[in-house]
Specification:
- The protein contains 2 helices and 4 strands; from the N terminus they run αββββα.
- A hairpin with a 5-residue loop joins strand 1 and strand 2.
- Helix content is 33%, strand content 15%.
- It is globular, with a radius of gyration of 13 Å.
- A 4-stranded antiparallel beta sheet has the order 1-2-3-4, covered by helices on one side.
- The protein starts with a helix and ends in a 16-residue tail after the last helix.
- By secondary structure, the protein is of the alpha+beta class.
């Protein structure tokens, strides 16, 4: 692996860990939000993000709902999704405190 990829993975893991650690793991409740199955929603190339009219829902590689990029916490969602994409399949959706990060 090159150093840029390693630095990106380290920064992402740190950001995700900071967000999850600061909000507390005890409050992380799983959300059963099923993936859309087709139009009018359109998937990203990797199938982790589905969007419709600027509203995008995101799932981890194990199909657990993670967050929404149209929510007030969109920046946090984007950072978490970078981690989802660079890390191996992990159950990140169940770790996200959905009462804070929607």
């Amino acid at each position: 692996m090159n150093t840029i990829a390693l630095r990106t993975m380290a920064a992402t893991a740190l950001a995700v860990g900071t967000v999850l650690g600061a909000t507390g793991m005890a409050s992380a409740d799983p959300v059963n939000n099923p993936k859309p199955t087709g139009p009018p929603w359109s998937p990203s190339a990797d199938g982790l993000t589905w969007c419709f009219e600027g509203y995008c829902d995101n799932w981890d590689k194990l199909d657990n709902y993670v967050c929404t990029t149209a929510a007030p916490t969109a920046l946090l969602c984007d950072v978490i999704m970078v981690g989802v994409r660079v890390l191996p399949p992990l159950n990140i959706g169940d770790l996200v405190p959905h009462h804070i990060i929607r």
